[in-house]
Amino acid sequence: MAGTTTKQLLTNLKELTKEYHNGTKSTALKGLKTFKRGIFGQNTVFPAISFLPRFEEHTGFRNGGQYKARRGIDAEIIIKTMNVKDTGKYLQEMCNAYLNIFYDDNYPNNYRFLNEDNEETVYNLTAGRTELNFFTGDRDQVLQRAMIPITFSSLEQAPTFVTAKNIVETDVREIGEYTHGILKSSTEMRKAKFFYSHSYPPIKVGDGVVVSVIENVDERNRREAGRGNPQGQIDILVWTKASPYEGSLDLNLDTLEEIKTVLQRDQHLGGRCFSTQIERIEYGLNAEARLYTSRLSFITNSWQTLAIE
User: Fold this and answer.
1) Which of 273, 309, 279, 285 is nearest to 297 (CA)?
2) What domains can be seen in the chain, in order of their start residue?
3) Which of 36, 221, 229, 249 lies 20 to 30 A from 191 at CA?
């Protein structure tokens, strides 16, 4: 089984939905007018569907660098409200039709999303409870929204990395500085603005990328033979402009993929940690500031000599 990315998963979902709209596989979703990855624009034609990332979790690590990834995606369906009773029924029917595409007997295992080598990239899908609500959109339109949370599971492979021969004594502060340095020197992220601090930097993103590295945990959860094992959590935050242009979301997702690669490739952080792990990525949206805001939580384990009491 091959792996995937959050960006590729969103693209697969959008294309699959279109196939159930334009007659390639069915016309069950023919009522939809707009298909988006990311947020809608002011001139969106409804009914519309968008796909938004929620989270990515890494678990089940094995020797050789293989691990399990769970990715949460929200499918958001929005329609104009003319008559509350009638539109509510129509929206529920649209949600049922959308969920049915993953259980279509004519096209079984739609959710597995084959890559260009005909390999499956997802091995499991779980749909959560659909949430319905009303809100006022642009041009004072009264709209009804359905949010369908779906979790996809895949097997991923960390890039090849060199094992450190010696692990030196260090602290979480130094680990944060080192993490900031290797990310900032990545050739794929040289155009990003980098901050390293214990607080959020002033955000002025424009059309670029802002990345901040913050240490926020220092737990000495284990002691042995005169030394402690501090466990640190490094939060890496990524901000990009949120616009209806799908490339603005891609910029955020591509930056996170590069951050993942850099951290997984240098898993001992230059001999400063005996183990590290990317635990979770939270994808978010600051609607007021019109920013995509993502947080990657990175767990580190190192050692320090304990003071003699």
Assistant:
1) 279
2) 6-157 (3.30.70.1700), 172-305 (3.30.2000.10)
3) 36
